[in-house]
Amino acid sequence: LKNIKHLVQCGRAGRLQHYDYGREENIRRYDSPFPTEYSLDGLTTPTALFYGTKDRMVPLESHNSTLDFFPEGTVAVSNFSLPFGHTDFVWAPEARELVYEPIVEFVRSTL
Predict the structure, then answer these.
(1) d(CA 20, CA 97)
(2) CB-count burial class (<10 Å; 0-12, 13-18, 19+) for 73
(3) Displacement of CA 36 from its chain's centroid (Å)
(4) Residue 78, SS3 per DSSP
(5) CA nearest 33: which of 43, 41, 23?
């Protein structure tokens, strides 16, 4: 439940940020009344992103803007054409073929 709330917070804020605990707890945790933004500037690991075209929880625009958070050249694979909803990545019978196997292949290719 906290993960879903965090996803909603990031969507509303329009940025990739730490969890918003409220003013007082944010100050204690982040030394700021607002959640601090995640920085991916130092990321050098090749990254693969997968998106389901039937995802009602996260619109395509959110995934497109997610690409902007990654340093140039780190997103090696972006597949935004899978006919999946949000939970299909776990539960769909064809998830192995369309998601898991390509992920394993991607990881092997970057070793």
Answers:
(1) 37
(2) exposed
(3) 17
(4) strand
(5) 23
Helix (H, G, I), strand (E, B) or coil at 63: helix
Give the pLDDT of residue 96.
Answer: 94
Exposure string over 18-35, b if 16+ CB within 10 A, otherwise e = bebeeeeebeeebeeeeb
Handedness of CA 32, 3, 44, 64 (dihedral sign): negative
**Across the chain, what does the average pLDDT equal?**
88
CA 48 to chain centre: 10
- Would you say 51 and 64 are in contact if contact means Cβ atoms under 8 Å apart? no
pLDDT digits (tens, 9 = 90+) for 37-60: 988 889 998 988 888 888 887 777
Token pair of 46 as six digits: 């090749």
